[in-house]
Specification:
The longest helix is centred in the first third of the chain and has 14 residues. The chain is an alpha/beta fold and about 425 residues long. The protein has nine helices and 22 strands. It holds the Pfam family Peptidase_M18.
Length: about 425
């Protein structure tokens, strides 16, 4: 755990820069966990033991845990869940688009990005290539693409009402004429023959690095804070956790931005499989495992909204979170967030133990909120779940904004929860 918010923010910025895609985030999480003494287990093989500091990885998802040598009769799982993916644009298969002498990549929208925020930015391409032998290769470029906006001289109404067609207005330019071959370029980075590449999972990312802004450097401006800010907080906390009576579990899912219904998303089996195998590693049968789950809880950590000074009417008139005043406790009567009074009490105990402030977040009744992995995890496992997270301005923008203290506060509260608060 970092001693102050400044050190935490510097490391968060490095984590974001290393993670242009969920797959890269999974790779970075695995590398950092290994460096912190966690042993990687192969989900395709039997596990010789489950106690200690261990993790498994599947694509862009990672599950890590710290477990005692022996379980007592009252032990449960203390779970913190986040996600590694962010809204972006995914490269379509097939030939590039050629229009008016330009060469463009064909893309489709992934999740719900603020499309206008991606205009006129220096974009890279990152993800994985699959070759005919079944191997996968992580790749990333520098700035190679741009989604250009139409000049004001050619669209005099742009400042009054900007309407972007999701097909024709979002295709990034890569170059001109016939000199551009994106897949050949990426194959060269991966060190494979272009003819051996049979499939890919590639997305655009903003290449601008995270930066401190504000008169006193009190804000962090960065891409992919949703939800790498909470993922990094969970990572920083689990690295410091000591084995206790309960099993501390950190899970970073993929595909939250598109509904979580995948093999590595919260709607899939990845977390339950690991929990069942941990229980089995202690020799627990079905009834004992279900009893252990009934003694368990989960903190779902995802970003939320700070009150917007230009649009305060879009927020609840009473609950108006501000930056650097603590992570959010997210509530919704229609269970778009899983928080109830029992879960809220768990969160308040953790914050009090860590000496961390917290702020309630409730939506304006006329502005429905999004959702998180929280309700999905609660439904799949039947355990008490509370939704919390770092507050942002400009959520789902290519470049979001948070207070520099809030991710550090979240990490401290999560560590206190894992240590028994």
């Amino acid at each position: 755990m970092f001693a102050d918010a400044s050190l935490h923010t510097d490391d968060l910025a490095a984590f974001v820069a290393a993670s242009p895609t969920s797959l890269h985030a999974g790779e970075e999480l695995a590398a950092r966990l290994r460096a912190a003494g966690f042993e990687e287990l192969d989900p395709r093989r039997p596990w010789p033991a489950v106690a200690g500091r261990r993790f498994v990885r599947r694509g862009g998802s990672v599950v890590a845990w710290v477990a005692p040598e022996e379980l007592d009769d009252e032990a449960g799982f203390r779970i913190v869940g986040t996600h590694t993916d962010s809204p972006t644009f995914k490269i379509k298969p097939g030939a590039p688009i050629r229009s008016a002498g330009w060469v463009q990549a064909g893309v489709e929208i992934y999740g719900g990005p603020l499309i206008n925020s991606w205009l006129d930015r220096d974009l890279g391409v990152a993800g994985q290539l699959a070759t005919v032998d079944g191997a996968t290769h992580l790749v990333r470029t520098g700035p190679v693409a741009r989604i250009p906006q139409l000049a004001i001289h050619l669209d005099r109404s742009a400042n009054e009402k900007l309407t972007l067609d999701k097909q024709s207005a979002t295709q990034p330019v890569l170059g001109v004429e016939v000199a551009v071959d994106l897949l050949a370029h990426l194959a060269g980075i991966a060190g494979v023959e272009p003819s051996d590449v049979v499939a890919h999972d590639l997305v655009l990312f903003d290449t601008q690095r995270p930066a401190l802004i504000g008169l006193e450097g009190e804000f962090l401006a960065s891409g992919r804070l949703d939800n790498l800010a909470c993922t990094h907080a969970g990572l920083a906390a689990i690295e410091s956790v000591r084995p206790g009576g309960d099993v501390a579990v950190f899970v970073a899912f993929d595909h939250e931005e598109v509904g979580s219904a995948t093999t590595t998303g919260a709607g899939g089996p990845v977390l339950q499989d690991v929990l069942d195998r941990i229980a089995a590693g202690y020799g627990l049968g079905l009834d004992q495992t279900r009893a252990m789950l009934a003694r368990s809880s989960c903190i779902s950590a995802d970003t939320g909204h700070l009150v917007h000074p230009n649009y305060p009417g879009h927020h609840d008139p009473v609950n108006r979170p501000l930056p650097n005043q603590g992570p959010l406790l997210k509530l919704n009567a229609n269970q778009r967030y899983a928080t109830d009074a029992v879960g809220a009490a768990i969160w308040h105990r953790a914050c009090a133990e860590a000496g961390v402030p917290t702020q309630p977040f409730v939506s304006n009744n006329a502005v429905p909120c999004g959702s998180t992995i929280g309700p999905i995890t609660a439904t799949r496992l039947g355990i008490t779940t509370v939704d919390v997270g770092v507050g942002l301005l400009s959520m789902h923008s290519a470049r979001e904004l948070c207070g520099v203290k809030d991710p550090w506060y979240l990490a401290r509260a999560v560590e206190a929860y894992w240590q028994g608060a």
